Amino acid sequence: MLVSRVMTTFLKLMAQQLSRQKPQKSPLMNFHGVCCQLRKRFLHSITTTKDRKQIANICLAVVCLFLGSAIYVLFRPTTLLMFHWADWLGQTRFIGEVRNWVSDFDGNLPTWIVHSLPFALWVMSYQLFVSGIWWNSSTSARYLWLWSVPAIAITAELAQGMHIVPGHFDRVDLITIFVGTFIASVVIYFNKSIEGAT
After folding, report:
1. Model pTM score
2. Cα-Cα-Cα-Cα dihedral of 127, 128, 129, 132, to 10°?
3. Of 144, 145, 140, which is closest to residue 130 (Cα–Cα)?
4. Which of 101, 184, 188, 191 could form a disulfide with 124 if both were Cys (CB 3.0 to 4.6 A apart)?
């Protein structure tokens, strides 16, 4: 697995670098030098083109997850369920301070960014994360997992519009989910095509 291979390589490089490093006057400078050398050698040793693309997908997934959650926490009403979790974790005061700090942007953001974009970013995050985990697989199970959440999200939104399930149908939600799914698919395809070309 990529994670175990990355950790093993990192630990080996760390041991090699520490054994080669001569003692210096400042332990902090010594540590900084070791870290810089480790970073260069670590990135050079494990990041083949395939690894870079796989890691890029997972990093993009984390960015989408964080961005969607940040928009949700900073600009959505505090009566939503996520804020009860924040209260349970003892983060209500911190979130309140950050919300006050960004309150000037609240009225200037388009409604679709506040209400529709977070869910689309979470769907994108899911797709990118699954594609990163199943990078070397071309089985039907990979595609089933990859498309399950976008399909459920789109179907649920359409079902709300047809009053099959409770909830408020929003055309903008549907469009952002479609666009997010399309962008994630393009990124995955582009990363795969670059890997195949090298």
Report:
1. 0.69
2. 120
3. 145
4. 184
